[in-house]
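New to this. Explain the following:
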Amino acid sequence: MSKVKVIISNDQKQIKIPTGVRMLIRRCCNAVLVNEQFDGAAEISVTFVDDARIRELNKQYRNIDKSTDVLSFPLGIDGVYDINNDTGAQMLGDIVISMEHAVEQAKLYGHSLQRELGFLTVHSMLHLLGYDHEQGGLEQVRMREKEEAALTQLGLKRNGSYYMDGEA
């Protein structure tokens, strides 16, 4: 696999970004690309935001007026991506993570913030590569298997359920 550039921004002030998280995010992006046998150079943008900002984005782009944990904005369709003319890299898209949601979910699911951020990054990377779980069924199962494979490789194996009673 060729070079992967992960641009990470912190656009929130509520939660301090723990040491090592930026490296973790890069490792998560790389793991997904390796597992998916992605060919060529790639660029991904990851931005940490607060709940208010992710709610605005969710309303603007998905017409859902509530905050969420992560949003994915793919720049490709059917494996064809925009190209950065300066570097020749394929621009996969943008990942936006709510740090407030990540902290809450880590507590809820009983694992570390690093595990939660790793999961959200891997999950979003799969969306950037065209995977979708919204309709459930086999696609959702396939996506979950790919998430767990990447996280296990990174030493972030799951230790509990992601679903609470009553969730789909």
Observations:
- The first helix runs from residue 21 to 35.
- Confidence is low (pLDDT under 50) at residues 161-168.
